[in-house]
Inverse folding.
């Protein structure tokens, strides 16, 4: 989501005649789009801003901070002498006004901010999502469909940093995807802090409500997927991130049936112990999570039996009060779920969250040990899953290439399957980046596949 927001900010700046600086010393404006999920990300911001201010002699330089840290009072106090503007990403109007005041009026650029066709503000201002992105990737597009979160997990800053859940108009999303696919985009990634809680109500008054009425006018995430799947073109659909409590039978069946929705399902676990899940305020149990995993696997096997399927997750280690025995429950879930990929995070106390008041009583060394322990389990399950690909021909979206292999007079390409597996292959063909090609898999490791382009 932060990457998508950065593309949107860059698009706004480009619209108003700004151009990327060749280097830091030539820059007049620098924007930090921050992540506050972990302390390590926050510390990088402080270090970079300190170095920037101490080494840069450009008196014209303005520094802006947005993203998750922008509305934290302690961050504003710490950086008040180094930052020219703090603004939460949803408060994009503040950024527009600041640009006008500090740049556009001074330079006599007669540009109309109104050209963005801003609409009436909703309870959380997400109009900035309508701003065209400056994408560096011609074949993959990030499309936010909602922002914010109403779940208030005890460790998470998203509700305070992003605000409450707000969904974009369905017609706006569908029109955006149509436009992107006409331009040749091959992969659409639908984004949201809780993407499967998407809901949009279309009524005569054009208002949003969360009640139940005519299904003909109500868009939940399943219906949105169906509408996007109908759009003509050779493209594929991914979506992140899901919350297990909002994964319905309807969504599972819809995702498994639709041809353009990829065979990859991200289902964050966070912890495998019921007591830890309760203190995290995750609103599901270990048993309910296992049931979802089973339903997902059965549905994909039923509707896409000829295709392989991958499931990925997120797990936090060292949550306050998590004993070694409770941690082993997460390890047991990993062994049974047989994940293809897991994104691990060592618990980091975040100001403003419920867990901020809890004692961070798991040592750094213990957290590191636990992460390593789980990673070894993942390595085994991922390796076993990947071996199933050997001998198969898979559709691969080519992402990049290395210089020609002189010895073989071939180019080395890298891309991803529909299940988000990394694939390396060689070909004498040129200009394959951004294309979907057929690759026969000949070798599998824990994290990567190798193949040869299919004739």
């Amino acid at each position: 989501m932060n990457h998508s927001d950065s593309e949107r900010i860059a698009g706004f700046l480009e619209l108003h005649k700004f151009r990327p600086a060749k280097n830091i010393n030539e820059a007049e404006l620098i924007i930090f789009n921050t992540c506050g999920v972990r302390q390590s990300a926050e510390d990088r911001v402080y270090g970079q801003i300190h170095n920037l201010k101490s080494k840069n002699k450009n008196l014209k330089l303005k520094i802006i901070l947005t993203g998750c840290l922008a509305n934290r009072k302690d961050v504003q106090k710490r950086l008040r002498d180094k930052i020219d503007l703090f603004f939460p990403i949803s408060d994009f109007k503040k950024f527009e006004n600041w640009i006008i005041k500090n740049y556009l009026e001074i330079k006599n650029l007669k540009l109309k901010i109104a050209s963005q066709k801003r609409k009436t503000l909703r309870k959380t201002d997400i109009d900035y999502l309508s701003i065209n992105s400056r994408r560096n990737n011609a074949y993959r597009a990030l499309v936010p469909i909602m922002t914010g979160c109403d779940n208030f997990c005890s460790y998470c800053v998203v509700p305070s940093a992003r605000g409450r859940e707000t969904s974009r108009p369905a017609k706006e999303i569908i029109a955006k995807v149509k436009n992107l696919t006409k331009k040749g985009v091959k992969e659409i990634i639908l984004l949201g802090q809780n993407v499967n809680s998407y809901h949009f109500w279309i009524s005569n008054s054009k208002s949003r409500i969360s009640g139940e009425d005519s299904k003909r006018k109500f868009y939940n995430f399943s219906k949105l997927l169906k509408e996007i799947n109908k759009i003509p073109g050779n493209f594929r659909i991914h979506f992140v991130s899901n919350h297990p409590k909002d994964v319905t039978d309807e969504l599972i069946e819809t995702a498994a049936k639709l041809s353009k929705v990829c065979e990859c399902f991200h289902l964050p676990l966070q912890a495998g112990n019921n007591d830890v899940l309760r203190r995290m305020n995750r609103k599901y149990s270990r048993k309910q999570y296992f049931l979802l995993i089973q339903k997902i696997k059965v549905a994909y096997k039923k509707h896409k039996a000829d295709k392989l399927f991958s499931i990925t997750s997120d797990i936090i280690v060292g949550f306050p009060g998590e004993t070694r025995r409770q941690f082993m429950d997460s390890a047991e879930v990993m062994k049974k779920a047989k994940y293809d990929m897991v994104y691990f995070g060592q618990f980091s106390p975040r100001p403003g969250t419920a867990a901020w008041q809890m004692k961070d009583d798991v040592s750094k060394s213990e957290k590191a040990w636990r992460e390593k322990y789980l990673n070894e389990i993942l390595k085994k399950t991922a390796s076993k899953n990947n071996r199933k690909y050997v001998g198969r021909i898979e559709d691969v979206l080519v992402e990049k290439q290395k210089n020609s292999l002189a010895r073989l007079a071939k180019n080395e390409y890298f891309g991803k399957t529909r299940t988000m597996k990394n694939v390396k292959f060689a070909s004498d063909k040129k200009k394959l980046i951004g294309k979907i090609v057929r690759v026969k898999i000949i070798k599998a490791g824990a994290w990567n596949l190798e193949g040869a382009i299919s004739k």
